[in-house]
From TrEMBL:
<keyword id="KW-0378">Hydrolase</keyword>
<dbReference type="Pfam" id="PF13307">
    <property type="entry name" value="Helicase_C_2"/>
</dbReference>
<dbReference type="InterPro" id="IPR014013">
    <property type="entry name" value="Helic_SF1/SF2_ATP-bd_DinG/Rad3"/>
</dbReference>
<dbReference type="GO" id="GO:0006139">
    <property type="term" value="P:nucleobase-containing compound metabolic process"/>
</dbReference>
<feature type="domain" description="Helicase ATP-binding">
    <location>
        <begin position="11"/>
        <end position="288"/>
    </location>
</feature>
<dbReference type="GO" id="GO:0005524">
    <property type="term" value="F:ATP binding"/>
</dbReference>
<dbReference type="InterPro" id="IPR011545">
    <property type="entry name" value="DEAD/DEAH_box_helicase_dom"/>
</dbReference>
<protein>
    <recommendedName>
        <fullName>ATP-dependent helicase DinG</fullName>
        <ecNumber>5.6.2.3</ecNumber>
    </recommendedName>
</protein>
<dbReference type="GO" id="GO:0003676">
    <property type="term" value="F:nucleic acid binding"/>
</dbReference>
<dbReference type="Pfam" id="PF00270">
    <property type="entry name" value="DEAD"/>
</dbReference>
<dbReference type="InterPro" id="IPR027417">
    <property type="entry name" value="P-loop_NTPase"/>
</dbReference>
<dbReference type="InterPro" id="IPR006555">
    <property type="entry name" value="ATP-dep_Helicase_C"/>
</dbReference>
<dbReference type="InterPro" id="IPR014001">
    <property type="entry name" value="Helicase_ATP-bd"/>
</dbReference>
<dbReference type="GO" id="GO:0043139">
    <property type="term" value="F:5'-3' DNA helicase activity"/>
</dbReference>
<keyword id="KW-0547">Nucleotide-binding</keyword>
<keyword id="KW-0067">ATP-binding</keyword>
<keyword id="KW-0347">Helicase</keyword>
Length: 660
C-alpha cells in the first residue's frame, strides 16, 4: 500500500488544530519528507508564524522510523508533547492506520531519585538541614521545599521536576536528585524497579518519536555512552542554539569549591595517605585561584601546571583506593562511594585535559562576584565533533527562524561542520568528506515590509566602552515617549540596561521593568498586560519574549551585540579563523551579532496584525562595512534612518492601538 502524500497528511493535521494552510509550512513539510526519505540533511529557516512544528512532525510521523526531536527550551518541549504531538497523532491515525507512540526524555538529574528521597543524602551534603524521616515541620524555605518534595514523591507518576508546581529551589532539588555519574544503576539500587529516570528511558525505547533537549543530545554524541535509543532521523528545532549548547556540555570546569567537595566526599572512604594527598593538592589549588585574574591562558603557567598535576595524581590515587576499600561503618556505602567517585573523576579528568594542552582547547580563568574564581576549558570549535557524531549515521533536519545570516546558510553551516552548500556533493573536492546538505528558506506568513520599520539612529556617536551614552538615552527617551510605552529594550549588558532603566524612570511617567528585579516569567506577564509598561534587559530577552499584539510595538537595541573583546572563547575562535586565512571578525563576531539581532528583531512581529518599529541606536549598522551583512540577517522590514519619520510612525501606531 502506498504512503499517503505528505500534503494530504499536513492538511489533516492543520484541520485538527483548526489552523489555516500556510505555503511555507507546506513547502517545509515536503522538503523534510524528501530529505528524510533520501537520508540527506536539511537546514530550514521558517519564520515566526510558519507553524514549523507541524512542518516537521507530519513528515517525521509519516516516515515510520524512529525520530528524535531536540529543542533548546523547555517551553517548546512541553508544547510538542502536551499539544502538538497528541493532536497530530490523532489527526493522522485514519490515513497512517497507526498511532505512533511519543515520549519526552531528559537528563537523569531532572528526575527525582527515590534512593536519595528515602535513604537521604551523604552526610557532608546534608548540613543537618533535612531528615527525610523527621516529621517536624521545618521553618526554613529549604526545609519547606524538602517536605513538599517528600509529599510529591508519593503522588507523582513521572518524578519530572517540571511537573512540580510551584517549583523548588535548585538547592532543594539537589538533595533529591543525582547525576548520571552518581547514579548507582538500576540493577544495584534498591529502588531501581520504581526509578523515574529508568521508567522515562523505557518509555523512550518504545516510542517512535522522542522529544529531548540539545544538552542531552550533546551528551549522547560526545560521551560515547548512548542515552538516546538508536534513531534514523534527527530533527533539531531552535537550531540556532545548538552550537552554544554543545559547547556548554563539552566545557570542563574546576573550582576550589568543587575540589574541596570531592575531597570531603572521598575522605571517609579511602586511607589517610590518599585523603591527605588530595587535601594538600586542594589547598595548593585554592591558594592559586585566590590570585587568578580573568582571561585566557595561551600557555598554562608553571605554578598552575604543578597544582593541576598534584590534583590529577591525587585524584588517580583516590580513585584507585575507592576501588579497593570498603568501610562498613558508612551506611549505604555504595551511594556514598558512587557520589565520591563522580566528584573525584571530574577533578581528575578536567585537570588531565588541561595538562594535555590540546591545540583544539581554550583555557581561561573566570571570576564571579559571588562564586569566586574558576578554571575552564572548552573546545575551540565543535564543528568537527558535530560533523562526526551528529551527521554521520542519520538524516538530520535543523530548523529555526534564524539560520540564514547575511543572506545565506553557509555561516551557520560552517559552525555545524558543514561545507558551503553544494560542495559536499563534489567528487574529489576537499569538502566531499563533509555530508551533503540543502538550505531552504520557507519565508514567513507576515508581510514584514508593511508591518514593521527598521530604524537606525545614524546621527548618534559610535558607542564606546563607557556605559553612559547621553545621546543614546535622549534618543531612547523620545522613542519610548512617541510609542506611549509598549517598549522592549534589548541591551548588550546588564549595566547598560540598569543605567537606561534608572534614567528613563526619572524622565518619563511610565512603568519600566528591569530584568533581575523579578522572575523573568513575571516580568514578561506584567509587560504583556499593560500597554504603557516597558521591559528592559539583556541576553535572555533577545530570544525569550513572545508578546503579540499592541503591547510590544517598539523593540530597541542599544548597540550591535558583538561579543566582549575579552571573551576568551570568542577571541580564540576569531584568532584561529584569521590564522587559517579567513576573516575572523566576520566569521565569529559579526555572525554572533547577526544571530542575536535576527532573534531580537523577531520579538516585534508575532502575529499578522502586529505593527511596530525595531530601533537600533548604533550608527554602525548604517555606516560600517559589515552593516549590510547584519541588516540582511534581520527580517525584511521597511528601512529608514529618518528620525522624524519614525517618531510620526510610532505616534500613529500608538494612536491606532488606543483606538483599537
Amino acid at each position: 500500500m502506498s504512503k499517503p502524500a505528505v500534503t494530504e497528511l499536513l492538511q489533516a493535521a492543520v484541520d485538527a488544530v483548526k489552523g489555516t494552510e500556510r505555503p511555507g509550512q507546506a513547502a517545509m513539510a515536503e522538503a523534510v519528507a524528501e530529505a528524510v526519505d533520501a537520508g540527506r540533511h536539511l537546514l530550514v529557516q521558517a519564520g515566526t508564524g510558519t507553524g514549523k512544528s507541524l512542518g516537521y512532525l507530519v513528515p517525521a510521523l509519516a516516515h515510520g522510523e524512529r525520530v528524535v526531536v531536540a529543542t533548546a527550551t523547555l517551553a517548546l518541549q512541553r508544547q510538542l508533547v502536551e499539544r502538538d504531538l497528541p493532536r497530530t497523532v490523532e489527526a493522522l491515525h485514519p490515513q497512517l492506520r497507526r498511532r505512533p507512540e511519543f515520549a519526552m526524555l531528559k537528563g537523569r538529574s531532572n528526575y527525582l531519585c527515590l534512593h536519595r528521597m528515602h535513604e537521604g543524602v551523604p552526610q557532608e551534603e546534608e548540613d543537618g538541614l533535612f531528615d527525610p524521616f523527621e516529621s517536624a515541620t521545618p521553618t526554613s524555605k529549604l526545609g519547606q521545599d524538602l517536605l513538599r518534595l517528600r509529599d510529591w514523591s508519593d503522588e507523582t507518576e513521572t518524578g519530572d521536576r517540571d511537573d512540580l508546581k510551584p517549583g523548588v529551589s535548585d538547592r532543594a532539588w539537589a538533595q533529591v536528585s543525582v547525576s548520571s555519574r552518581e547514579c548507582l544503576g538500576a540493577s544495584k539500587c534498591a529502588y531501581g524497579a520504581e526509578c523515574f529516570a529508568e521508567a522515562a528511558r523505557e518509555r523512550a525505547k518504545l516510542a517512535e518519536v522522542i522529544v529531548t533537549n540539545h544538552a542531552l543530545l550533546a551528551i549522547d554524541a560526545i560521551e560515547g555512552a548512548p542515552v538516546l535509543p538508536g534513531h534514523e532521523v534527527l530533527i533539531v528545532d531552535e537550531a540556532h542554539e545548538l552550537v552554544s549548547r554543545v559547547t556548554g556540555v563539552a566545557t570542563g570546569e574546576l573550582t576550589p569549591g568543587a575540589v574541596n567537595r570531592a575531597m570531603r566526599r572521598v575522605a571517609k572512604l579511602v586511607d589517610e595517605k590518599a585523603a591527605d594527598q588530595l587535601q594538600t593538592a586542594a589547598e595548593t589549588f585554592e591558594r592559586l585561584m585566590e590570585l587568578a585574574l580573568p582571561g585566557r591562558l595561551e600557555k598554562v603557567p608553571e605554578d598552575l601546571q604543578y597544582a593541576l598535576m598534584a590534583l590529577r595524581d591525587a585524584g588517580r590515587t583516590c580513585l584507585s583506593a575507592l576501588g579497593n576499600t570498603r568501610d562498613k561503618s558508612v551506611q549505604d556505602e555504595d551511594a556514598v562511594r558512587k557520589q565520591a567517585k563522580a566528584s573525584v573523576e571530574n577533578v581528575h579528568d578536567v585537570a588531565e585535559r588541561i595538562l594535555e594542552g590540546s591545540e583544539f582547547d581554550v583555557i581561561w580563568y573566570e571570576r564571579h562576584e559571588r562564586f569566586g574564581a574558576s578554571l575552564r576549558v572548552a573546545p575551540l570549535s565543535v564543528s568537527g565533533l558535530l560533523r562526526e557524531k551528529l551527521f554521520a549515521d542519520r538524516s538530520v533536519v535543523l530548523t529555526s527562524a534564524t539560520l540564514k545570516l547575511g543572506g545565506d546558510f553557509n555561516g551557520v553551516g560552517a559552525s555545524l561542520g558543514l561545507a558551503p552548500e553544494g560542495l559536499g556533493d563534489e567528487e574529489g573536492d576537499a569538502a566531499a568528506e563533509t555530508p551533503p546538505w540543502k538550505g531552504l528558506d520557507v519565508g514567513s506568513p507576515f508581510d514584514y515590509r508593511k508591518q514593521g520599520i527598521l530604524y537606525v539612529a545614524k546621527h548618534l556617536a559610535n558607542p564606546g566602552r563607557e556605559p553612559q551614552r547621553t545621546d543614546m538615552l535622549d534618543e531612547l527617551t523620545e522613542l519610548v515617549e512617541a510609542a506611549g510605552g509598549r517598549t522592549l529594550g534589548l541591551f548588550s549588558s546588564m549595566r547598560a540596561a540598569r543605567s537606561a532603566a534608572e534614567e528613563l524612570r526619572g524622565r518619563l511617567g511610565l512603568p519600566i521593568l528591569l530584568q533581575g528585579e523579578e522572575t523573568l516569567g513575571e516580568l514578561i506577564r506584567r509587560f504583556a498586560e499593560d500597554a504603557e509598561t516597558c521591559l528592559f534587559g539583556t541576553l535572555s530577552l533577545w530570544q525569550g519574549v513572545d508578546v503579540p499584539g499592541p503591547n510590544c510595538q517598539l523593540v530597541v537595541m542599544d548597540r550591535v551585540p558583538f561579543p566582549r573583546p575579552d571573551d576568551p572563547l570568542m577571541s580564540a575562535r576569531q584568532k584561529a579563523v584569521e590564522e587559517a586565512g579567513g576573516n575572523g571578525f566576520m566569521a565569529v563576531a559579526a555572525t554572533h551579532a547577526a544571530l542575536l539581532m535576527a532573534q531580537g528583531a523577531g520579538r516585534l512581529v508575532r502575529a499578522t496584525g502586529d505593527r511596530g518599529v525595531v530601533a537600533v541606536l548604533d550608527p554602525r549598522l548604517e555606516r560600517a562595512r559589515y552593516g549590510g551583512f547584519l541588516r540582511a540577517s534581520m527580517p525584511d522590514f521597511w528601512y529608514t534612518t529618518d528620525r522624524n519619520q519614525v517618531r510620526r510612525s510610532l505616534a500613529a501606531i500608538d494612536e491606532g492601538a488606543k483606538r483599537g
